[in-house]
Amino acid sequence: MSSTELPPVPASTVLPRVAPVRVAEGERLRSVGLPGATLTVRSRPPVREGLPPALCVHGLGGSSQNWSALMQRLEGLVDSEALDLPGFGDSPPPDDGDYSVTGHARAVIRYLDAAGRGPVHLIGNSMGGAVTTRVAAVRPDLVRTLTLVSPALPEIRVQRTAVPTALLALPGVAPLFTRLTKDWTAEQRVRGVMALCYGDPGRVTPEGFRAAVEEMERRFALPYFWDAMARSARGIVNAYTLGGQHGLWRQAERVLAPTLLVYGGRDQLVGYRMARRAARTFRDSRLLSLPEAGHVAMMEYPDLVAEAVRELLADTGELGEPAKVSDEAAGSAMADEAGTAGAGS
């Protein structure tokens, strides 16, 4: 494994059309060469030595930036990293063009094997939730605990609001959508994405919105943007249709790691009703239900998700010194869990 440090981009810098990704204060990026892929990894230097490692995996159309808020709140608890899956964020496409759930899982496994960081506290959102479920099932030696935020596990009745995303998997749809939306501005695209992914888009700060627009402009200029989106969407649809031991629900049954499930009541992409099935399926699970959250609870409610992760690690004996979580956040999380969450089997 080869690794190259990437310099941060000052917020005041005038960015070219295809610019380096934004790096928040306290973060760093590095490029990691692996067999068949090059991955960009985002990290925060650990506040002290000896913290257990954690790895975060984003969803369709996302990037490691989706985890910046949560990683900041997990300081002092874990040594956090987040990677850009092949073809997303700042990672180039995979050499073999494999964007399936298995292909993405293979990239995660290769990184963990090469980095020697396993076993890790593995955290995934949406498509990343499907990917990390597969990793935990086939390589339990690499996973201490598993946290899934709105995981993209198969649903028989898909929500109507999720259908347009699924349609990206069909041949010709991505080019058609590109032509139909060629006059849309980056701001319009970001507002559309936020309306779909957030329970309350009003929670996004002006700075957060500007950063999202900047990232949209950067990603949209990449020649492989739509190919990565379409092929990954196809990979999710294909994973939904797999049966037998390779089916995602069957693999969820095989996960040995203690599992935290986080579902949002306003999620328009993953059905809220799937939370109870997931809690029954993962053998050692607990459920955090956030009625006001959408598809990216770790971005909307990072304090509550961080507190739930802290409790998971504490209850499973994985917690060292307590993380510093605000009294207000802890109280809110306890109230929310008391009212809406229950432990799974």
TrEMBL record:
Q: Where is the AB hydrolase-1 domain?
A: 55-300
Q: Name one Pfam family in it.
A: Abhydrolase_1
State if Hydrolase is listed as a keyword.
yes
What keywords are assigned to this protein? Hydrolase
GO molecular-function term, one example from the UniProt record: hydrolase activity
Domain of life where this protein originates: Bacteria
Q: Key word Ion transport present in the record? A: no
What protein does this entry describe?
Alpha/beta hydrolase
List the source organism. Streptomyces avermitilis
Lineage summary: Bacteria, Bacillati, Actinomycetota, Actinomycetes, Kitasatosporales
